[in-house]
Amino acid sequence: MKYPKELMAYCPNCNAHTEHKAKLASKGKARPLAVGNRKHERKLMGHGGKRAGEKSVKKQGKRQKVILECAQCRKKQERVIGSRTKKKLEFSA
């Protein structure tokens, strides 16, 4: 999906529509001691288990998140793209 690099959007800090730069939101660094990571590590310690067959269901696309940065006040805000996309966002000029 194509998305503009720069667009006019509402900035709650400036309380006006201003020019914004858009970039794709990325995951932060994983914390090794987070509960989910500890649980996953425990699960991997097991022996055997069921063998996975071929999946008939197609994976669902992600709702992608864009970070908008105001050109005037440099504040950032998130915007979620409503439709699910199979491919990564492509920024066009």
The overall pLDDT average reads 89
Structural class of the secondary elements?
Answer: mainly beta
Helix percentage range:
10-25%
The topology string of helices and strands comes to EEEHEEE
* Rg over C-alpha atoms, rounded to the nearest angstrom: 19 Å
Largest sheet: 4 strands, antiparallel
Distance between the termini: 14 Å
Q: What oligomeric state do the depicted chains represent?
A: single chain
Number of strands: 6
The name of the CATH topology of the domain at 1-26 and 63-93 is Nuclear Transport Factor 2, Chain: A
Q: What count of helical segments does DSSP give?
A: 1
CATH class of the domain at 1-26 and 63-93: Alpha Beta
Q: Which geometry do the CA atoms define?
A: elongated
Strand content: 25-35%
What is the correct CATH architecture of the domain at 1-26 and 63-93?
Answer: Roll
Question: What strand order characterises the main sheet?
Answer: 2-3-4-5
Poorly predicted runs: none
Features:
93 residues, mainly beta, Nuclear Transport Factor 2, Chain: A, two-stranded parallel sheet, 11% helix, elongated
Please tell me about this protein's structure:
A hairpin with a 5-residue loop joins strand 4 and strand 5 (76-80). The mean pLDDT is 89. The chain has a four-stranded antiparallel beta sheet with strand order 2-3-4-5, with no helix packed on it. It has one helix at residues 35-44; strands spanning 2-4, 6-11, 16-24, 65-70, 76-80, 90-92. With 93 residues, the chain is mostly beta strands. The chain is built from one helix and six strands, in the order E-E-E-H-E-E-E. It has a domain at 1-26 and 63-93: Nuclear Transport Factor 2, Chain: A (Roll).
